[in-house]
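Lab notebook, bench 4. Continuing the backlog of folding jobs that were queued last week. Each job is logged with the same field layout so the records can be merged later without manual cleanup. Today's entry covers Major facilitator superfamily (MFS) profile domain-containing protein, a 496-residue chain. Filled in by technician R.K.

JOB TYPE: sequence-to-structure
TARGET: Major facilitator superfamily (MFS) profile domain-containing protein
LENGTH: 496
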Amino acid sequence: MEMPSEKSPATVSTSTTQEKPPISDTPATTTSNSDGEATTPSVPLTPEERHLAQMQRWNTPRINLYRFLAANWSFILMGMNDGAVGALIPYIEPYYDISYTVLSLVFLAPFVGYLVAALSNNLIHHHLGQRGVAILGPIFRLIGYIPLACHPPYPALPVVMLFPGFGNGLEDSAWNAWIGNMHSANELLGFLHGAYGLGATIGPLIATAMVTKSNLQWYAFYYVMIALSVVEFALAVPAFWKATGAVHRAQQGLAAGGGEEAGDGEEVHKRTTTRTTLKNPITWLVALFLLGYVGAEVSLGGWIVTFMLKVRHAEAFAAGLTVTFFWLGLTLGRVVLGFVTGRVGEKLAITIYLLLSVALQLLYWLVPSFVASAIFVAFLGFFLGPLFPAAIVAATKLLPSDHHVSAIGFAAAFGGGGAAIFPFAVGAIAQSKGVEVLQPICLAILVFILVMWWILPGGMRRGGLEKARENKERVGHQLVVLWGRMKSRGQKPEAS
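JOB STATUS: finished
OUTPUT FIELD FOLLOWS
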């Protein structure tokens, strides 16, 4: 066990912390000092206890409350950005007179922005801290939204959408990593991603109403987004102004258990680079899980309206409402099931949610009724809702503390690329096969991420992820154990 140093919080009373988390209320044995006062012996902290001691709360210190609210506001804008595109597709297509394949580039373009955000997130944190994220996020959104509001020629449209993609990816990765390391992370991430779902609910509703009821053009929606992005800048920058790169570097030094002592009495901590975290297979598993999940989520949200119009023959406003039901279900699922997931255990809870999602996706595909499809879509959103927050929590429990910002930031931003790749694939294939291809593609994605989830270390019981890290279980450990048990059972009749 690492011996405590003078410069890091290395000891704690056994009355508050025992050898392994969770912290117990069992009182420690007391001794007496020379003055006859009762004292409690101190023991060195384990790395897990050190991490628990450093975890922040959403309302302590007080500035965290404002920062949490600013992060939620940014996620509302992310949701409005992603949700409105699908609702506007039926109106962008005739405006530019283009095919589904060409139109689908509006989904693919932001992937480049998300990819750059994934690779630069750790570097921006190291030099600029969360302050840099709070400044760059809304600025890059505005760089994209202002030209969109001017409805440029279509070839410029995908290029312009690179910039909101970078801003969204940067904030997506940063705020997920920050809140994922807090106490009650499941519940807080449920609210954070519920804010995204809220934005994705009201975004299509506003966009559809502006076009169908107010007879405005599709680009009028981005006037609203410009105003809301300015509000975000005014909220986020003051809230995160003191969260500089120096503060982030100091926190990373503590997360790693203290750095080397420099000659001037300060600690020097070597930065955990993105390259280092990418050597851990858990980082890639979580990233692939999120890539598939976000791809399914945005493919459904982006093409529901077109599917309802072309296949279910719904009216324009009613079709627009179905995508609102989907995002509303997703919002409620994130908030409500966020309180369930941690109590059941992440591995088991997400497995159940995914199996239910597969069943609902099949019903949505095979039952040829508009009303039934709208109901299935709403419940599909509900059970898909908690998947993203749970994946972030799983990463924090399986990865070392000093890997969290880099690994979770990369996984969240890389996963956000799913919002570009899969909706583009749906559009490209729909050009020749019809928009009905949405259903089998989404079904295949759901099965894929279910397999990715099972490969992650940790059993199905509550606390399985924590035990997997303690026992240093490898990727796919539970599948190997399950296969061994099935093999041994199959050999028993032969032995008899």
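OBSERVATION: The longest strand covers residues 11-13.
SIGNED: R.K.
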